[in-house]
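Backbones bend. To wit:
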Amino acid sequence: MPSSPRRSPASAHPRVPRRDWDADGLAAGVRAGDRRALARAITLVEARDPLAYEVVRALYPDTGSAYAVGLTGPPGVGKSSLVATLLRELRRDGRSVGVLSVDPTSPFTNGALLGDRIRLTDHFLDPEVFIRSMGTRGHLGGLSEATLQSMLVLDAAGKDVILVETVGIGQSEVGVLGSADTVVLVLMPGSGDAIQALKAGVMEIPDVIAINKRNHPAAKTLLQELRSTLVLERNGWTIPIVLTEAVEEAGIDELWAAVEAHRAFLEASGELERARRRRLGAEVFALASARAKTHLERAVAGDPELARLLADVEERRLDPLSAVQEVLERVFRIEGSDGRA
């Protein structure tokens, strides 16, 4: 491993009384590794509770040490199984780990299955492991809007490694780049998803490729296809392809060694710190855009004049760009816009 574990054993973590769970109390509990405080803080983050902003603000100076690994790929290729085996590998080495498993949210009910934790039951009682499922809540890119904020909370809690498993939804999976230091693309031979991934452009995002179910007869064929089809070099880094078998824990040490090698490469070149700065800057704009969109939707829903504008567009009495101009002027006081702002 590239660095020593950050924390003392979890048995040494003091518990913070619930009565102290204002912003300062929650922040203190998270720093101390209190699982209840950590769970509560992430719940507040997901709910966009105003208290969450205060907690994250207090914790932010304590972040920047955890290493984030994103696992992405088509559904059914074994991402959750790989997460479980990687988790065992990391715990054997004494690493504290946070796991965020992002599940798809129904566009009809806004509910999410949140079932991936079933595969991680062996680690529920481990005080140095924190596992949380999150819904995408309609957010494209396979990651919920709250994911990065939750990662900051886990980082401040002293987790050495944060594993983020994303929804396999194709090209918009590139959203994982907004939060992970190393991206692992998981593929499975014989499913046809690998070719679809090639077409969708998903193959442009990984730092490491894992072909799961390496005992499958088509595993080596897929390996050769990837090597002959892809340019496995990016900015001086040669993308390794690792054959794994999650159920048998085969190839897991090689997979983690590839992740460590990528981390060492990033650190040696100074790119790790630069990339983290870029991502945090992008997060500001992403959150601002999301808040602006929510504000706009609420403004339109509560303003009869804006509702009339939409009706005029629907009835083809007003063109969309003219409507945009009026909306921006009324909601955001952006005057003189030609609709391209």
